[in-house]
């Protein structure tokens, strides 16, 4: 169960400085830049570094990949490293559809059964037993996020494809609707 602080809200798959500006303006907690070449939202290392530098001091930055080797060049440029393959890092956001083992201590645990595909699936009850900062991801949208928050009361939520007009092309209006839905559901007493 969460406390009274604002809910953590991350928007992932950002590709431009303007999108970072939108995330800051709308009150998002963090942005994500995709560092796996298999993704339609992939950002090459030199560009990823530029985006991380632009975000620095304004909003928390995540680089997202399946494996540490995919983002080895930029690990030092981002605040948090979000990986689907477990790696022991102090600033790790571990992404999985399986509960982490007790020895797998990480800064954030992202539950994502979609493995970055954006397909929504119901969230399992065992998530409520996971200690720490649990973030729900995978198919969340302005239309379903309020119900997910009301039902599961996570530390945070993560969005990507539902706030886009095309892969990597975010919509300010959709980002705004998502954040408004989160804020209304996360209010105390909601």
Task: Write a brief caption for the model.
The protein is an alpha/beta fold and 190 residues long. Helices cover 23% and strands 21% of the residues. Helix 2 (45-55) links the parallel strand 2 (30-34) and strand 3.
Can you give a write-up of this model?
The structure is a single chain. With 190 residues, this protein is an alpha/beta fold. The chain has helices at 17-26, 45-55, 145-152, 172-186; strands at residues 8-11, 30-34, 60-65, 80-83, 92-96, 108-111, 134-136, 156-159, 164-166, 169-170. Helix 1 (17-26) runs parallel beside helix 4 (172-186). The model has no long low-confidence stretch (mean pLDDT 91).
Overall, the morphology is: globular
Largest sheet entry = 8 strands, parallel, barrel
Give average pLDDT, whole number.
91
**What is the terminal separation in angstroms?**
13 Å
Order of helices and strands: EHEHEEEEEHEEEH
Helix content: 10-25%
Specify the number of helices.
Answer: 4
Number of strands: 10
Structural class of the helices, strands and pairings?
A: alpha/beta
Gyration radius (Cα, Å) is 15 Å
Give the neighbour order of strands across the main sheet: 1-2-3-4-5-6-7-8
Give the low-pLDDT segments.
none
The proportion of residues in beta strands is 15-25%
